[in-house]
Amino acid sequence: MDNSLGKFFTITSFGESHGDCIGIVIDGCPAGLAISVDDIQREADKRKSGARALTTARREDDKIEFFSGIFNGHTTGAPICLIIWNKNIDSSEYDRMKDLPRPGHADFTAMMKYGRFNDFRGGGRFSGRITAGFVMAGAVARKLLSLVGIEVLAHTVEIGGIAARPKSLDEIRKNTGQNEVNCADPVAAGKMARAIEQAGQEGDSLGGIIEGIALNVPVGLGEPVFDTLEGDLAKAFFAIPAVKGVEFGSGFGAARKKGSQNNDPFAIKAGKIITLTNNAGGIMGGISNGMPIVARVAVKPTPSIAKSQPTVNIKTMKIASLAVRGRHDACIVPRAVAVVESILAITLCDFALRAGLLPRVIK
Amino acid sequence: MDNSLGKFFTITSFGESHGDCIGIVIDGCPAGLAISVDDIQREADKRKSGARALTTARREDDKIEFFSGIFNGHTTGAPICLIIWNKNIDSSEYDRMKDLPRPGHADFTAMMKYGRFNDFRGGGRFSGRITAGFVMAGAVARKLLSLVGIEVLAHTVEIGGIAARPKSLDEIRKNTGQNEVNCADPVAAGKMARAIEQAGQEGDSLGGIIEGIALNVPVGLGEPVFDTLEGDLAKAFFAIPAVKGVEFGSGFGAARKKGSQNNDPFAIKAGKIITLTNNAGGIMGGISNGMPIVARVAVKPTPSIAKSQPTVNIKTMKIASLAVRGRHDACIVPRAVAVVESILAITLCDFALRAGLLPRVIK
Amino acid sequence: MDNSLGKFFTITSFGESHGDCIGIVIDGCPAGLAISVDDIQREADKRKSGARALTTARREDDKIEFFSGIFNGHTTGAPICLIIWNKNIDSSEYDRMKDLPRPGHADFTAMMKYGRFNDFRGGGRFSGRITAGFVMAGAVARKLLSLVGIEVLAHTVEIGGIAARPKSLDEIRKNTGQNEVNCADPVAAGKMARAIEQAGQEGDSLGGIIEGIALNVPVGLGEPVFDTLEGDLAKAFFAIPAVKGVEFGSGFGAARKKGSQNNDPFAIKAGKIITLTNNAGGIMGGISNGMPIVARVAVKPTPSIAKSQPTVNIKTMKIASLAVRGRHDACIVPRAVAVVESILAITLCDFALRAGLLPRVIK
Amino acid sequence: MDNSLGKFFTITSFGESHGDCIGIVIDGCPAGLAISVDDIQREADKRKSGARALTTARREDDKIEFFSGIFNGHTTGAPICLIIWNKNIDSSEYDRMKDLPRPGHADFTAMMKYGRFNDFRGGGRFSGRITAGFVMAGAVARKLLSLVGIEVLAHTVEIGGIAARPKSLDEIRKNTGQNEVNCADPVAAGKMARAIEQAGQEGDSLGGIIEGIALNVPVGLGEPVFDTLEGDLAKAFFAIPAVKGVEFGSGFGAARKKGSQNNDPFAIKAGKIITLTNNAGGIMGGISNGMPIVARVAVKPTPSIAKSQPTVNIKTMKIASLAVRGRHDACIVPRAVAVVESILAITLCDFALRAGLLPRVIK
């Protein structure tokens, strides 16, 4: 079940970049959640925004359709199938490249693993477009989490080495959607946008770092020793193409701190035990500790670039050079923000159902 | 099945730090692997070495026993149960702390999740001692992988901010076991050891970074979109207590590179397609690409420190201060090297069986 | 993942009887299988035939569509989504019955489990129509199995107490599709058909027994102690609505035999070890023994009957009586034959992939 | 994970008939269950009783030991490992038979699947002794279920063609443990015992039918379409060696009834909706309906008989004849009663946890 994720709130992904559609089946969603196509559409549109303005990326309406699991405006407890159709497809460029794996891209491993049967058009199953399914499922997950007060956010914290200054939760909530890079720091956002534009003009691309935050997660989600909150979140984040690193709280920075610096002192606030700092990123021993969950994912620069790069023709086994043409984002970080948010919501939903925090039928 | 990992080579962990034993059940090991207690013991002893010299850590013989799955010196295809007994136990210090969660430790979340039933002695299920089971399973996994030429290594690359200089594979193989911090750079190793000693004397602790490497992994292991090599490895690494970050190849560094810098150019070597650099860490699109798999995990400093820290008595709900006494490593990085190596081997074994690279019965 | 079945060849079912469509996602199908919509359509049409002639059952074109996983006429290794659209829907009768659970039907448990959110139209997820998805997946599975010479058959062996006489494999192959009850014994078939007709005229219904057979299954499929061939087949058969019993080989009859009668003596034929009888139904210790796999499933009579029956109005909590109107088969056994065949094929496919009998990429 | 069963209350079986021990790991047991070794021992002893008097079967003390998961007399939420040691072992007879598969036994398939690595001693993993682990886990499950008022029973309803007369629940509770065949009908019990004795004297064996009953199961357990109560129970029952058939309620008898006879009319009793008959065996649409769950399993006659039978020497590939010597029950039905009861309890526990009927921590 390589294409399924989650034990209790299980998503199954299908569809290819240039196939008929991108789809997701959600199994395990409680009955009784009021949800409409518009609720999903709003979230899915986030994934399209942002970098949109900066790039010549493929434009799709991406109108969402429900195929099952909804009756009278509510979930029924049955599997929910959600679809967006692929239109506006031009696979000609991929025909040209089908024996020329793009450096840095999954082309090569896909060719080797699936051989001549690999659906290479638009990157097939390895396209970032697959994450449209994650975002549809994420919209359902976020709605479920909101029932128990859990809020999930994500924002760009770094692009091309340009780091956003730390911002308050309110600023993150308010500013993130206001600029084309989904960054809470408007000054950095401007610089990031210009850097992306310039990289694009140079036929190059940029990477960055996205931070996901979950608020009001109660103490106790996560199941050691293997089904930890960190472990399951990390596994899910790595399903986003281009993610090469995941950290929680102080993360790699923790490796350079002393215990006395990195340990979060306990205190009492409003009758509840809290920690004064959050180096743990809200997770201790794989279990949520009631503080905000903070995860950061490293996104590598888009491998498809216009600059010429050395590759090998897998048929002729001769060295070749490849300059990728067509509609590729010079930086996918802004669009991936909605995906990080979705993956965070989906995984928390899974743990919330597992822990009985969410009911099987919503009254 | 929170305590099970892997779909094809499945390990199930049981036992507590101060219970009768630490155990692991391996399900899915092919029949016909020649293996002895000594094979396992050798690997398990690695976990004990290293920091041992530097600390007053608990000393156990940790003699391994097979309980099942072995007949006439070979695996039978049946579940293999491996055990080490817990001896030399002193739980008195934990009685003192049972209402005082150690800052930075899983004590708090364990207390909250399992209530008064939590086995707090020695950290119970949240103790690093649980990883002894991972190492026993890792020894079996490494032996299996060696049948198809896959070699798995791990070494300390950073402790307390002291970074090892890059070393060749030969140096890593040769030097790592030669010093008490399991570092391939002897000069850095000396500095790391002194830093650990000093931190210990200050009642403090240090974290660090461990690198795991797998060589000769053929192209094609990993199952997108969710059961990716990176995702499943990351999930498994986060089962090691104190791990707060995982990255592959250029990892978080990729976020600061341009596509033209981070993409690994393809080339031909000895008739095979290789990449000239390995920023991908041997994994593209979640699938191994034939290059060395390179993962790095960030280990936070040991939370149990002798320095006094603020905490809260969960019974009285009053602020307290806690100085942890007893046998705690000032840095667990050196001992965790064998665990990282084991987790890497276990997960690769799972994928190798899944891909049919390893047979169900070894001839 | 209640709506997913299988570990290696995994099917995920979605859709409702009166929703937009019935769908199935197949994950784990090897790349390189040549398959067309027509291949699937042919199998799916079997499910519609038979009782068709005898009943006023809902008539659907049930034209199958591929949504993903097929490229250039071959499977790609990606999830295959298959759909049939629901048309010709009239839910008015179900509106009338929505507070009146049909005796013998899942209406009651569905109402109680999912409350007012249950999609009751046409039985929703509990309709026999859901099995159309199983048959689509079964068609793919049968094509895969045929690559390794495995043949899967099913036929009606009893309806309304009328038992077919034992028939040879050739007769089963030849006769089963030739009559409206899918029975290999033409004489019994005629009686069965008349019994169904009469039951229908009386406003009543009949049950029966279906036998599934798999030929040329090599020795060694099945994974004790829990993932046995019998266990996984039985679990899968019970997903067919109305199945209330499953047995293998001599089955319940074995309970009345002596060991000396029930044990199958070993012998040698064409250099291979066979058994002279097949009371084991081709399965010993949960593992295939190379003989034909023989399973029988008991199908209860259709609960939806025109005769008046006592029920309870779940809203008013008053006793009521219900005579079910509309298009219900007086016996679903003939239509379920294709479903039994499909389930058998799907489960064997799962074990064949698990055992490495089928490759991940078909050359 | 062939040796694991259950998603929420997961048991992992290890150990062989003539290995060191038989063990079971229970993962997912709620914290806070008061349990002692004696609680388990009492249930485990049931498996040994009964036929004991009738046979020369292996005698073991089977003293149970806890290895993990228990602290201060309560479960902790951590995996519980339970063990019985194997003593009183004599493998000489198995050495004699190691190339001579016993007709009707798993010897042949085990030899073929695992080759020369198969642990054939005492039947290895295919021995009925493995079920001692199921009974240990069943004892924990029954204790959990008792917290929510669910009672689980099993009794022999047929041996060697001798059927017990139907008995009331009170008689089943009272009589079952009173005779050596675990039958609620004392008259039939006497006949069964004599039939077993005679079969044993003739060097032959008998099979039979066991009925499992679960009382006070609330409406709503079971997860269609695949994780049905019937499907998961059937899968679990088939893990008991010698089981060849499983049916629920009227089972195979339903195939011969009309809808008007087999449908259970609804009625109201004490303000709750009940059915007047229980042909459904307490399960409709795969979901419990509040009535007693009734399952019957067919147990084939013990394959190991003293009568001479034709077999094949798998090394020489020559026809041979085999008369099995040693301590084999002439009928395992009486001992399997405790196993059926255990499997029923374990599976219901899984569904009870899944449905949130049992908490994760028992207050």
Main sheet properties of chain A: 5 strands, antiparallel
> Quaternary status of these chains?
homotetramer
Question: Overall 3D geometry of chain A?
Answer: globular
CATH architecture of chain A: 4-Layer Sandwich
CATH class category of chain A: Alpha Beta
Verbal overview:
Four copies of one chain form a homotetramer. Chain A has 363 residues and is α+β, with helices and mostly antiparallel strands. Chain A has one domain (4-354): Chorismate synthase AroC (Chorismate synthase, AroC fold, 4-Layer Sandwich). Helices cover 30% and strands 23% of the residues of chain A. The first copy, chain A, contains eleven helices and 18 strands. Chain A has helices at residues 37-48, 51-54, 92-97, 107-114, 131-147, 169-175, 186-201, 229-237, 251-254, 259-262, 333-354; strands spanning 4-5, 10-15, 21-27, 64-68, 70-71, 74-75, 80-85, 151-159, 162-163, 208-215, 243-248, 266-269, 272-275, 283-284, 287-288, 293-299, 309-313, 318-322. In chain A, the strands form six sheets. Chain A has a five-stranded antiparallel beta sheet with strand order 1-2-3-7-4, covered by helices on one side. In chain A, helix 8 (229-237) packs antiparallel against helix 11 (333-354). The first copy, chain A, is globular, with a radius of gyration of 21 Å. The two termini of chain A are 32 Å apart. The interface between A and B is large, with 104 and 104 residues.
How are the SSEs placed, and which strands pair?
The structure is a homotetramer.
Chain A: E1 4-5, E2 10-15, E3 21-27, H1 37-48, H2 51-54, E4 64-68, E5 70-71, E6 74-75, E7 80-85, H3 92-97, H4 107-114, H5 131-147, E8 151-159, E9 162-163, H6 169-175, H7 186-201, E10 208-215, H8 229-237, E11 243-248, H9 251-254, H10 259-262, E12 266-269, E13 272-275, E14 283-284, E15 287-288, E16 293-299, E17 309-313, E18 318-322, H11 333-354
Antiparallel strand pairs in A: 1-2, 2-3, 3-7, 4-7, 5-6, 8-9, 8-10, 10-16, 11-16, 12-13, 14-15, 17-18
Helix pairs in contact in A: 1-5, 1-11, 5-11, 8-11
